[in-house]
Amino acid sequence: MSSRARSVLYAVLILLTSVLVGTIGYGLLEGYSVVDALYMTMLVVSTVGFGEVSPLSPKGKVFSSIYMLINLGIFAYIVSVISQYMFEGEFKKIFSTFIFNKKPNKLTNHIIVVGFGRTGAKTCDELLKSKKKFILIENHKDVLTTLPEKPSFQVITDDASKEEVLLEAGIKDANSLIITLPNDAENMLICITAKGINPNINIIARASEESAEKKLYRAGATKVVKPFALGGIHMAHLITQPYVIEFLEILTGITGQDLRLEEFAFQQLKGEYKNKTIKELDIRSRTGATVLGIKDKLKGFIFDPNNETVIGDGDVLIVLGSVDSLKKFDMYCA
Q1: Element (H, E) at 248
Q2: Is the pTM of this model over 0.85?
């Protein structure tokens, strides 16, 4: 339970304790029945101002005066706690998560992301920028409080290692699973569970320890990413190859400049553009984008392909261009 949620719980307990004390006090001092004592207590607590059940004795008046002052403080505390809880978005976040869990939309050919820590949050941001369909699975309540107030993606608050949870996320119809948890053992268990349900799913898994990489591959991961190792390499290259890194950051959109790398599969192309050479497609003059490379299913990557290279079945184009030029490239896509 988060600290803000505990504060609300404490406020409710204080209020209930106050009502109990008031009911007992009026019952003992004034001889009221339980109903009358509770009624008198609620008049004081709510500050409504109705008349007394019967004229109070001197002891009852003293008790009421002290009780009123105490309840003014309790009332102010409860209002401040609830206001903070509402304004800081806790209620909205929990409500949004509840709605997404109760009304899941059926997705196909989508991505499942497990974990919304630092790595998972960045993953979700990139998927949103790329307008990809995905579902997030996150089981830790403290992490859930960091979700956007109105997430534009579905959220399942449960344990991703459970088969029924992955089935709820549509693992059978998903094309990829991204596992970003910091615990390597949990990541391996999720890999095994996912592969057991959908043997063809593409799994990208995070490895925190060097020794976990091979184990994750054996568990069914397609690719294993080691954030700390990548971070170290990146920092070293900032010294040894600063301009190369700067150029790569531009290509990946980190710097926010208007230059992007995109990939387009052969299957995405319209019929009239399939099995054509780069010269026949005339991509640069028609869109302003440049074909940097081709992933050939037989030859592997072909960098800086010549004009006579044919785009055939199974090939993937790696295209560099501005946002506008890549939009123009859509003319080639079905």
Answers
A1: helix 242-251
A2: no
